[in-house]
Prior knowledge:
It comes from Alicyclobacillus acidoterrestris (strain ATCC 49025 / DSM 3922 / CIP 106132 / NCIMB 13137 / GD3B). The longest helix has 13 residues, at about 85-100. This protein has an eight-stranded mixed beta sheet, sandwiched between helices. The model has no long low-confidence stretch (mean pLDDT about 95). α1 (about 25-35) runs parallel beside α9 (about 250-260). The chain has nine helices and 16 strands. The protein is an alpha/beta fold.
Amino acid sequence: MIQTKIEMVFLDIDGTLYANGALVPSGVHAVEQLLQKDIPVALCTGRSVLHAQHVQDELGVPYGIYFNGGLVKSRSDELFKAPFPSEDVEAIVRYADQFDIPTVVHTHAKAVAFEPIPPQYEPVLRSFDFPEIEVINKDFDILQTLPIYQINAFMTPGWDAEFEARFKGCYIYRWNPNAVDFQRRKSDKSIGALHLLKHLGISPEHAVHIGDGGNDVGMFRILGHSYAMGNAEPDVKRAAKRVTADALDDGVAKALLDLGLIDAIAR
Length: 267
């Protein structure tokens, strides 16, 4: 067991707390123990609020960092927000439409598409527990009125360099061979985390993040403690200070036990 002072726990969702279409039971029980000890817990995810809400509700976690740091909430209060410039959103969606690339845009409260997502992408949506998509009339001008935090595009990797070269204000995070997130260039989970830590009066040195993806590396760099999941890619593992077990092998609970933050692993 590591003897250290931890005042805040950040947890990724997919591939960390959530695997094979469900929350990992030992992770759920570990979060329960943290909350019983009054240790603040925040979900720190690339998911939208809509996409993460049922996970947050089931765990009883009050804090959320969504859209890879683009929005930070304490229950219903917004502590920080950094949506896309509306002109960037409209340009990306219009350009994708020219090549019949389906897109979904996310506000803080809903996921919107201008056409139904083609059936071949249904398995992709199901595998990531995707939220309900509202299909609206094809009027791209409405994008000027909506605060958009994330854009999904259903496209193959051959398009990535083309879009990143054309749209300098965003970067692409690929989460499936047929799907990507467009994120605002200045968004990162670590930016959101620093805003939340400042709000709570906690030093980054006394916080830990557990995650499995490339979008977790910024968190590993700024916090005093970090664990990569055993199912993470090698470069993600190298960025973390420690590596725990796979998600389905109680990786979250084992990391928290290693830190002395929970008393036992419960399944």
